[in-house]
Every structure is written in C-alpha cells, then in structure tokens.
Amino acid sequence: MSVGHFEANFDGLVGPTHNYAGLSYGNVASVTNATACSNPRAAAKQGLAKMKALHDLGIVQGVIAPHQRPDIASLRRLGFSGSDSRVLEQAAQQAPALLQAVYSASSMWTANAATVSPSADSADGKVHFTPANLTSKFHRSLEAETSGRILQAMFANSNYFSHHPHLPDNDHFADEGAANHTRLCSNYGDPGVQIFTFGRYAFDSSKPAPRTYPARQTFEASQAIARLHQLNEHNTVFIQQHPEVIDQGVFHNDVIAVGNQNVLFYHQQAFLDSAQKLAEIQRKFGPESLHFIAVDNHQVSVTDAVASYLFNTQLLTLPSGHMALIAPSECQENPRVAAYLAELVTRDTPIRQVHYFDVKQSMRNGGGPACLRLRVALTEAELAAVNPQVLMSDSLFGRLNQWVDKHYRDQLKLDQLRDPALLTESCTALDELTQILNLGSVYPFQR
Ligand code: SUG
Q1: 108 contacts 18 by C-beta, under 8 angstroms
Q2: Spatial contact of 254 and 218, defined as CB atoms under 8 Å apart
Q3: Distance between Cα 73 and ligand 1 center (Å)
Q4: Which of 156, 285, 400, 413 has the least C-beta neighbours within 10 A?
C-alpha cells in the first residue's frame, strides 16, 4: 500500500430486523428466498467477521450503522395512525406487503448507500458523497435521508468532505450509488478514472433497455453525480450495462464487474459497446497499462456468475502491494467458479489470493461481499478527520459482537413482524449503537 493514501472499506452492519421478504424483483436470490426464516444474529456476525478479517489483513475498515426499522414514520405518512403498536397491527392486517417493506434491513448493502468520489479527482480537492435515492424499489427508497445523516456523522469535517442531497426521487434519476461505480487509478492518491455504469436512458426511450427486469440506474442520474462531484470528461467514462445481462439477474453492475487500481475484472457480456468503451477507459487512464481480466461464457456463464457472485467479490490491494479477492463461499462451492479462481491466481496479474467468506445470510437476499461495503479512497489527513469510533479495531469488534448477542434475535419469520416488541428491541439496540459509534441522534426516534 502506498504511504499517505489508501482505500478504506465501510461495511453495513446488518440490522436487527434482517428478513427475507422477496422485495427485489430482478434480484434472483431475493425472489427465490422470499418467506424463508432469517437469522439476524448470525447475519450480523457474518458481516462483523468479514470486517475484522479485512482489518487483520491491514485494510482500513469502518462500520456503517443500520437504519431504524420498522420505518413507522413511513407507515404514518401512508395513512396508518394511533400508537406505534396500533400502526403495526393495522398495517399487518391491511397491507402486509407494505409492513414487510418498512421492516427491511436492506441498508446493510452500503454499496448502495452513496456514490463517493475521492479528493484526487474532484475539482475542489474534497471527498464528495451523494446518498443514493434508490427509487427503483420502495423498501430501499426509504434509506436515502438516514444514509445521508449517518455519512455526515461519520465524515463530519467540511474542510475535507462535501455532502450532497440525494438526487430527485423520480424514476428518471434512479440512482443506486456505488453498486454502479468503479474507480481505476495508479495509486489511490493519484487522479483516476471513474466508471459510471447505467442500465437505461431515462429521457430517450429509443435506446436499448432490458425487457424483463428493471434497469435500476439511469444514465442521467450517473451524469448528475459526476457533475455534483466536480468530475470532468477526462476522468469519467459512462458505460451501459448489457440489457441482456440485466434480464439474466444482473441487477447492478457490481454483480458482473469489479475494478481496483489498474485491474478491471468483468464478464465478457457485462457491457454494451464493450471494445470501444474499454479503449476509452485505457485512453483516459493514461500510458500505464491496465489489466483487463475478461471472463468469457466458456469459463463461467452469466448464470453461474449470478448464482456464485464471482464478480461481487471485493478486489483489494493488500499492504504487500498484491491484490486479493474477497469472495463469498458460494464461489468455492460452484466447481466451475472455484476452478476458474484457482487458475486466475496462478496467472500474471496483480490478483494473487482469494479469501472465502460465509456471508450466506446476506447472499440469500442477493447481497455479496462487495454489496456490503462502501469504498472511500482517503489520504492520511482525511482519515484523521473520520469519526474514529466507526473504525474497526479489536475492541470495537468485541463490543459490537456483545451488542449483537444482547439485542438480536436468533430467528425471524415474516409473521413475527407484527410483534411490537421487535420495534422496541430494535430501537433499544440502535440507541445503544449510536453511543458505541458516537453518531449523535441520526434516527427519527431520537429526534
Ligand atoms: O437492493 N436486496 C438488495 C441487495 C442489494 C445488493 N447490492 C449490490 N449489488 N450492490 C437489493 O435488491 C432484498 C430484500 C428482501 O427481499 O427482503 C434486497 O433488498
């Protein structure tokens, strides 16, 4: 790792109401596992174990707090009234699907929390954050406000950090954050190229678009983020996801591609106009050569990639300078993917290691290792300005595991969501968490 600048990973802590409600049409795992019994305690611990392992590998690792769920304020806004228990009871009777949506712990997938541009690329030399509006799915559209407040409580110094409001809440500006954003660079502190991937054009229906599943990111949203973050045409590339892969369950680009420094690891079918766009990336990157690691259908099919989350791996630069893939154990269990990865690390590329992690609780909702983290490239000075209590350490790891043991249920089924005790348990847990992480009053129930 180069001294003075590096990439930090901020993982979403899985919230106490983690459940499987089948809320994300187009996300195969979410729909397949609808109504399964979830294990909130195990889910949170799987996430914490990954965070601690990355910390132990020498990566700067932080924690992003979960959101208040159930989102009672949204139920009230939609016409339910009376005490909180009464609101829950009425919603359970009259609109059970809505109750499930306001109970989702989906804020755990912090790749979707925001798009972040590091200071080396932005005209004003600040790190820019724009929370994603997540308008494509109702349950996720409830996250933007609180994500913004939590990020401001973590990155609270306006000398270094610039926070923007989320884009207008409309289909035209549908934005899913860093799940469709990758940055390539030589060293993290050097200017890089930011790749914005999108699924459709909102203002031009004559352009290609998926037929079956929704495209969750628009070109216009990506362009707006680039403007807000003070990027320019020399350090941005806009690439359309291939509509056919969206229709095979690739609901975000991070299900089919991942990049880090001088490596872009992707499936051959990921992009439209692939050759032309990859040439544009190389041109804007500069004279140094990039490693374009393309996986073709004969090696791993799109179906296997979606089932195993081969590309939802985290591609990390270790302190040694070598790169490692942080992969879900589903990649190890799929013989074709496991064989591919075993061969990949013997090749002459920067990727030398694969570390497998059990994040099955999250995977059952379509969230792999890369979905669970928000990448923030920082300088030493910027890191020093981050709220230190959100940074992973041996003691924070111990404290958060105890907190999970104290507050989380072992199992959760959808018919338990009407139980008002779950709301009380969740708010008690989150109140304590804001003290552990020194976040102040970020939740509606605290304000
Ligand atoms: O938005 N699943 C999430 C998974 C997000 C994965 N993120 C990235 N690929 N970056 C989603 O579809 C399912 C919730 C449920 O069905 O209960 C869910 O929201």
Answers
A1: yes
A2: no
A3: 22
A4: 413
Token digits of residue 55: 């910390």
Any ligand 1 atom below 6 A from CB of 106: yes
Domains and CATH numbers, the chain: 5-69+104-446 (3.75.10.20)
Summarize pLDDT for 170-198 with one digit per residue, the tens: 999 999 999 999 999 999 999 999 999 99
Average pLDDT across the chain, whole number: 97
Confidence check: pLDDT of 1 > 70:
no
Tell me the pLDDT band of 104, cut-offs 50, 70 and 90.
very high
Listed residue (436, 401, 374, 390) closest to 143, CA to CA: 374
Atom of ligand 1 nearest to the CA of 19: 17
Q: Give 289's pLDDT tier (boundaries 50, 70, 90).
A: confident
- pTM of structure: 0.98
The bridge status of strand 161-163 relative to strand 127-131 is parallel
Reduce the secondary structure of 201-224 to three states and give it as a string. Answer: CCCCCCCCCCCCCCCCCEHHHHHH
What is the rounded CA–CA span in Å between residue 37 and residue 415?
10
Q: Is the CB of 112 under 6 A from ligand 1?
A: yes
Of ligand 1's listed atoms, the one at least distance from the Cα of 27 is 12
Q: What pLDDT, on the 0 to 100 scale, is given for residue 3?
A: 65
Q: Quote the CA–CA distance of 48 and 397 in Å, as a whole number.
A: 7
Q: How far is Cα 128 from Cα 225, in angstroms, rounded to an integer? A: 10
In short, whether 43's Cβ falls inside 6 Å of ligand 1 is no
Is any ligand 1 atom within 6 A of the Cβ of residue 18?
no
Phi, psi of 58 (to 5 degrees): 95, 15
Burial of 282 (0-12, 13-18, 19+ CB in 10 A): middle
Task: Tell me the sheet residues that pair with 62.
Answer: 10, 391
Strand order in the sheet with 373-379: 60-64, 5-12, 373-379
Residue type, 168: P
**With bands split at pLDDT 50, 70 and 90, how would you rate the model's confidence at 243?**
very high
